[in-house]
Amino acid sequence: MPHPQYDLAIVGGGLAGASLGFAMAREGAKVLILEREAKFRDRVRGEGIFPWGCAEARTLGLYDALLARCGKPIAVWRRHFGAGQTVDRHLPSSTPSGLGMLNFRHEAMQEVLIGLAEGAGATVHRPAEVVGVTPGAGPELRLRTGETMTARLVVGADGRASRLRGWGGFTVSRSPDFLVIASTLHEGLGAPDDAIHSCLCIERGQSMLVYPLGAGCHRSYLIHRAADRAQRFSGARDAAAFLAACRDLAMPAAWFGRAEQRGLLASFDSASNWVAHPARDGIVLIGDAAGASDPTYGSGLALSLRDVRLLRDHLLGESDWTIAADRYAAAHDDAFMALKRITDWFTDMSFAVGPAADAMRARSAPLRQADPSRTPDLHGVGPDAATDEHARQRYYGEI
Questions:
Q1: Domain housing 357
Q2: Would you call 20 helix, strand, or coil by DSSP?
Q3: Does residue 261 share a domain with residue 212?
Q4: What are phi and psi of 287, to 5 degrees?
Q5: What is the Cα–Cα distance from 146 to 163, expressed in whole angstroms?
Q6: How confident is the model at residue 42 (pLDDT cuts 50, 70, 90)?
Q7: Do 387 and 294 sit in the same domain of this protein?
Q8: Residue where one domain finishes, among candidates 220, 249, 269
């Protein structure tokens, strides 16, 4: 077999792909990144990294560059209740990493990271559309232009709708559709920009998040049960209706009085989808291609960075990359399924309906209020929180 042209050929130059390209190129690997978009653009996506993900970025050598070039550090997570009541969590003083959140415009973050990868020695082709991959030893990629190339390992970092999954023969599992997220960018929002703002109305099956991104810009997310609302907010025609729905929740309604939409408004189902053991036949998947966690809970960017760090460490620690990829896949599965258990529990507690769900909340809520350690720390430690049966019983107030 001819010697592969590259050590790693990464399909997708977003957060996961560019971060891996940077991490491996700086260690001397011959890396190719193939990115479909000539210019990254605004879409409805996550725009904040939880503290445990910021710790992963720091370990990968990316945190300082993101902070300096596009990031807005956020130290406080503020929960809003009725009658103007709030509860703050100071993240740097209450998380193992000592870090808060890092927010940014998603497309700005992508440009920073792909530039870092190229600066570290990775070859970047954009726009470049991959139209097929032949798995096996020294897998081959085919581009729309007719060009072909080979690599020691092909990495799929091409998102929730990954085509690499199909070409590699991976089976995708998906949670049932239950929640819907609507989101857009706002300017002129009256929300303070020193905190993440969140609220939850269990009775109405709705929650909301506001992420400050800097320069007077906020990302607003509105989450609701799919069965409870026929309308899905989309486009400029629904801008006023979306603002009205935001005003109806527990945050100060006055915040939204002068807000103007400055980005796409779109709605999408928040169901998780994932691949069990995302490595086979010379192909490995990372980020949302390997497992897209429920975006209601905002862990996708942190989880992608965990994937990158795990794969980097295994590739650098094992000369046989088939073994390294398998070890990464097992570690990824552990982290992804732990995170899924946590977010499934949270969905039960916040959005489940019926007498049994009401009784569960009535039993659990006072116990968790008296002992916050009963609630897994999604923001601080993510998938490293305990998620065994004992932890589940404590969260649900069964013991």
A1: 352-395
A2: helix
A3: yes
A4: 65, -150
A5: 18
A6: confident
A7: no
A8: 269
Confidence label for 41 from pLDDT (cuts 50, 70 and 90): confident
DSSP letter at 373 equals G
Same domain, 113 and 26: yes
Together in a domain, 289 and 311: yes
The reply to whether 380 falls in a domain is yes
Distance CA 197, CA 78 (A): 5
pLDDT at 44: 78
d(CA 379, CA 224): 21
Q: Is the pLDDT of residue 328 over 70?
A: yes
Confidence band for 2, pLDDT divided at 50, 70 and 90:
low
Checking DSSP bridges between strand 279-280 and strand 283-285, what pairing results, if any? antiparallel
* 333 located within any domain: yes
Of the candidates 269, 286, 319, which is a domain's last residue? 269
Whether 93 is covered by a domain: the verdict is: no
CA separation (Å) from 141 to 33, 129, 359?
12, 10, 54
Per DSSP, what are the bridge partners of residue 72? 103
The span from the CA of 7 to the CA of 152, in Å, is: 5
For 137, counting Cβ atoms within 10 Å of its Cβ (0-12 exposed, 13-18 middle, 19+ buried), the class is: exposed
231-248 average pLDDT score? 89
Is 221 domain-assigned?
Answer: yes
Question: Which residues 6+ apart lie within 8 Å of 102 measured at CB?
Answer: 48, 49, 54, 57, 63, 66, 67, 71, 72, 73, 74
Q: What is the mean pLDDT of the chain?
A: 95
Cα–Cα separations (whole angstroms), residue 294 to 114, 187, 274: 25, 26, 11
Q: Region of 150 please: left (phi>0), alpha (psi -120 to 50) or beta.
A: beta
Per-residue model confidence as pLDDT tens digits over 386-396: 999 999 999 99
User: Average pLDDT for residues 122-129, to the nearest whole number?
Assistant: 97
